[in-house]
C-alpha cells in the first residue's frame, strides 16, 4: 500500500514543549515538505487537543509558522497505552508513517511505520532535515 498519511508528534518533535512553544529549527520547510509529499498530515500527540491547538495558534500569532501550514493539521483522537495508527480516520496503519521522538508510544506491531527523531529541547538542530531524507527513502524517492 502507498504511504498516504504522515502523523507528527508535537512536543520535542515539532516544538520544544506546549508551554514555551519554541519551533524546532527548520519547522516551516519541514511542514511544507510534508504537505507536498503526503495526502494528509495529522498531529498525533499526548498533549490535550485544546492545548495542542493553542500551541499551533501561538506559532502563527508570533509569525513563526504560516497558518496555511498548520491549519490542515488535525489532532488524532485516541486512547490507550500507544499511539495506535488505527485511530487515524480513513487510513489503515500500513498507509501511515509516524514521526515521534519517543518509541515508547509506538504500538509494538506498528514499529515499522515509525520514523524516529531525536528529541529537541532547544538550541541548534538539523533533525528535521535528516528526517526529510528518511521520509524520502521510505517513499521510494531519490534524496534531495
Automatic annotation (TrEMBL):
InterPro entries: FCP1_dom (IPR004274), HAD-like_sf (IPR036412), HAD_sf (IPR023214). Residues 5-135 form the FCP1 homology domain. Pfam families: NIF (PF03031). This is FCP1 homology domain-containing protein.
